[in-house]
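Quality-control log, excerpt.
Job 1 of 2 completed; input and output follow.
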Amino acid sequence: MRTRIAAVAAAASLTLFAGAAMAQDLPQLRVAMSQDADALDPTLSRTYVQRVATLNMCDGLFTYNDKLAVVPRLATSYEWTDSKTLVVKLRPGVTFHDGTPVDAAAVKYTLERHANMSGSARKGDVASLDHVDVVDPLTVRFVLKAPDVVFLSQLAVRAGTLVSPKAAEAAGKDFALNPVCAGPYKFVERVAQDRIVIDRVPDYWDAANYHFSRVTFRPVTDSTVRLANLQAGAVDVNIEIPPIEMDKVRKDPKLKLVAFDGLGYTGISFNLARTPTGQTPLGTDARVRRAFELALDRAALVQVVYNGAHAITAQPLPPTSPFYSPGVAPTTRDPAMARALLAEAGVKMPYQVVLTVINQPDQVQLAEVIQSMAAEAGFAVKIEAMEFVASLDAAEKGNTAAYLVGWTGRPDADGNIRDLLHTGAPVNWVGYKSEAFDGLIDQARSIADMSQRRALYAKAFGILHQDQPILYLYAPRWIFGMSAKLEGFEPVADGMLRLNGVTITR
């Protein structure tokens, strides 16, 4: 059954969001998120909500504009002097929130931290980096091991996000408890499962474009409560409106809806015998995983749970991506063929699958529909709902057999597959190993020609569809609900809440 929160819970949450106004001229902004973030450390972080909460606190060398073009932030310009050497000029006069300079030495420190820190989630992002040279205080040179057309785009996401060397060295493994970066907002406090608070930096180099004195992020897993808070004016932005609630936002004159295409996917990641939990027919025999795909009707799943708002996909990209391969299409549901594959694999039916899901209503409902469909094809699905960060930790440790989870995506196809599926990659929690797949995406990373890259990815996606380390289901759209008094927000397909130029009338 789908969990429902009583009205008293919504009322309590409304009270929780109400707080004394800061005695400042600029208004505050209050943002509701669907989950709590993981570590507030650019080197260790893995989650979308973490990046939403820290994007305006932790600036990077580059970012994306609304056309997904790479544009400078802490950098002012860049030049490829040859196929393996990228020279970046830095913005003068910029400091971290502790007053130390944002200079070439800080860039070198951060990139080496990404590459070498224990538990770093950025190792794959900077795997092609050989070394970093400090040319002068405002010039840094990146020297790669081999040509890599993806490297610059990585610097526009998490890999290019800078941290204060002084603060990082002093805090060590506890840096996430008090992150010190160089963005338009600085860290104030975090209370787990309750709030993350950041305050405006008056002397930021572009402070004139940031119009909120304080921004507070609140994790609320129940979508009904999040919407109630938005409707009551207790929050100004809800970054994840379920499709079934879109009309409620559209019809409310106090609100407005902003919906736009994303870059990622939602799917089921299988443990391919990486740990004892995965040493089962599901983890060791691709026929069992292909049977699970045949048990499902992607279009029906999206229609039932999301009113058809999302696009179905059988590859790690949305159909709107320039790298999308039409030849790798979703398989038509066929329970009889699924049963035949299970019989061929020699498993006893009904075959039990433990499906770990994030404990929020739409994901639990999605799992329940999957459970119902799979039962007709010889599977007995047991649903295990977990808090978001706890589920990530379980997957990382190999304690999940099948994990329903999404990846928010990156503009380049490499960003949706390398870290998760290349042999030995830092987020390859499924334990996938394929020399053919690795070879194709390695080759694609070294070629600038778009048509050649697209052809290589098409072959790679075909291998994934055969092996099914991840059963791709659909490509979500971003659906934000906002106060009608909010102006200036420019949607970008990465789903970030960029606050430059955003204003609100109280």
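Job 2 of 2 completed; input and output follow.
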Amino acid sequence: MRLRKFRIPHEILFLIEKIEKSGKKAYIVGGAVRDYLLGRSIANDFDIATDASPQEIIRLFNRVVPTGIKHGTVTVLIGEHSVEVTTFRVDKGYSDSRRPDTVEFTPNLIEDLSRRDFTMNSIAYDASEANLIDPFNGQSDIARKIIRTVGNPLERFSEDGLRPLRAVRFASQLGFSIHEDTLAAIPVCMEAFKKVSWERIRDELIKILLSPVPSVGLRLLESTRLMEHALPELLPGRNCLQKGMHVYDVLDHSFLTVDSCKPDLELRLAALFHDAGKPFVKSSDEYGIPTFYNHDKKSTELAVQALRRLKFPNDCIDTVCHLIALHMFHYEDNWTDAAVRRFIAKAGEQYLERLFLLRLADGSATTGIPADPRSLVPFRKRIDAILAEQSALQLKDLKISGNDLIDIGIPKGPVIGRILNELLETVLDDPAQNNRETLVKIAMGLKSKYL
């Protein structure tokens, strides 16, 4: 593999030089070396392996955080960089299938590299000599685009239950294949995987969903059985046929919908779950054609269930579910302006672009042919025209408030909200009604209806 110049920030070089001037060695390891060999741009994420002890590193640098000192790791804050510096070590025992029970420091770099997950991540770079140390042929596997564990895959995966999911994530991110022995070991190590925290599983799933072709990782999740634990809500979609214009079953359709979306996490999550409810509501009409009435509601329920389990933030869950709930919209030219206003009010102006993108992705994944974005142009023009009018679309846009209703004798309580909603419906039908005097008269007429 032909090497290019490894551009290392001067702060990282300074850190390495300072360690080596103290009589110790320091090497760049991990993702930065892998990305360098792949010719990818390297982020400011550098990890250093050294034979210096954590205490020696603390003495050498002014700003050091003992982030994992039990396992030999400290974080050196230097310039704008937070650099993890870890003493060469050998791990002993993994009773929780995540972290070593104990570690033993070693002066041997090769022993340290041997405890790492994949060959492509077990390469060290000696900056002072501009030399790579690659005892497990990681460069060869990178050149061949292969993900392979260091040593026995069953041992590596049993040590750390997150590693199987990391293998799938790297395959999805990098476009690599997983070596057959490594791939075969993944379903065997399910019990170790089940011990991993939901937060860590979530973080890996996010990286899969934001990868260039997410379906690569999603299919691997299914074939390795990791999906049974991580995303079981999706599996009933396999072999759930849809017929009509649909070329694929529900699960493949969902995977391809994700692929067809831009790398926006909430949009891709909505794409992943938008049809998850179909197998649960599937029925047939009088001609034997499959129907899926209210699948959007069931899909929303399943998305909430999965995303809460995976500890996604509430605002993310709310956005995803809102997109799923409205993904079935069907515009026709005979819609009145009031109907368009109601659609905008229900969808929320801030969600319109994502809804359109989800609709197009859904269409693309139905036939396997990219949907024509021009199909939504007429609806976009109608929406733009309505928005340009700046008419009332939400309660906050009304020229009357709850306090105004109280002033005209309507008591505090739920009735205030009911009347405001009716006033909004009036204004959505006819924006000219949105003036205080008119709304007060209408509210007075509604007063007797509710009191």
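Post-run check on job 2. The longest strand covers residues 81-87.
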